[in-house]
Design a protein that fits this description.
The complex is a heterodimer.
Chain A: E1 5-7, E2 10-13, E3 19-24, E4 31-37, E5 43-50, E6 53-57, E7 65-68, E8 75-79, E9 88-95, E10 104-105, E11 109-113
Parallel strand pairs in A: 2-11
Antiparallel strand pairs in A: 1-3, 3-8, 4-5, 4-9, 5-6, 7-8, 9-10, 9-11
Chain B: E1 5-7, E2 10-14, E3 19-24, E4 29-37, E5 43-50, E6 55-58, E7 61-66, E8 71-76, E9 85-93, E10 100-101, E11 105-110
Parallel strand pairs in B: 2-11
Antiparallel strand pairs in B: 1-3, 3-8, 4-5, 4-9, 6-7, 7-8, 9-10, 9-11
Classes of the chains: A mainly beta, B mainly beta.
């Protein structure tokens, strides 16, 4: 069964450093998302991406965050200068249809900012 | 603003009993979905109910939707130990591309 893959599974970084979280969505999907979850709490929407541009973003997704789809398969989330409060599990998700909006999630990247 | 709120926050029941979780939301929606999350893993889609539907079944799952009360419930019948997980409702507000998740209900099935 096709799945969304995320790398790395764990990322440890120093405060102020840049990190790039990588995702390979399901190949025929068109809609891509990043969510984050702090310590098993609520799942927070960060950004949605369609047709090579951001379609929605939350208040969390400030100027320190950016997303890219550099080729036909990868979808990345970059945090330019990490803060302690960026420590969380980051999930990538994709969907094949705006109508159904059934999301397929990756296993996540646990980001720890020291 | 928080769109979905699940209730209760945590639920422990004996294996074989039915588990009911509720979700309330604030704005009008196109669909409502329920997802499951095992500890430390990604979310897995369980079931989607459209705004013009009132009830939907999938195996041991039964979902209801009351758009007048802006609420939904997820019923898991004949619970099993493997059902232990967190359950989240998710809504897509009209005219939005994003899907908003609630805080989840942590379900623990006791042997």
């Amino acid at each position: 069964e096709p799945e969304v893959t995320q790398t790395p599974s764990h990322q440890v970084t120093q405060m102020g450093q840049e990190v790039i979280l990588r995702c390979v969505p399901i190949s025929n999907h068109l809609y891509f998302y990043w969510y984050r979850q702090i310590l098993g709490q609520k799942v927070e929407f960060l950004v949605s991406f369609y047709n090579n541009e951001i379609s929605e973003k939350s208040e969390i997704f400030d100027d320190q965050f950016s997303v890219e789809r550099p080729d036909g398969s990868n979808f990345t989330l970059k945090i330019r200068s990490t803060k302690l409060e960026d420590s969380a599990m980051y999930f990538c998700a994709s969907s094949d249809s705006l109508g159904s909006k059934k999301l397929f999630f990756g296993s996540g990247t646990q980001l720890s900012v020291l | 603003s928080q769109q979905g709120e699940e209730d209760p926050q945590a639920l422990s029941i004996q294996e074989g009993e039915n588990a009911t979780m509720n979700c309330s939301y604030k704005t009008s929606i196109n669909n409502l979905q329920w997802y499951r999350q095992n500890s430390g893993r990604g979310l897995v889609h369980l079931i989607l109910i459209r705004s013009n539907e009132r009830e939907k079944h999938s195996g041991r799952l039964r979902v209801t939707l009351d758009t007048s009360k802006k609420s939904s419930s997820l019923l898991i019948t004949a619970s099993r130990a493997a059902d232990t997980a967190s359950y989240f409702c998710a809504t897509d507000p009209n005219r939005d591309d994003k899907i908003i998740f609630g805080k989840g209900t942590r379900l623990h099935i006791l042997p």
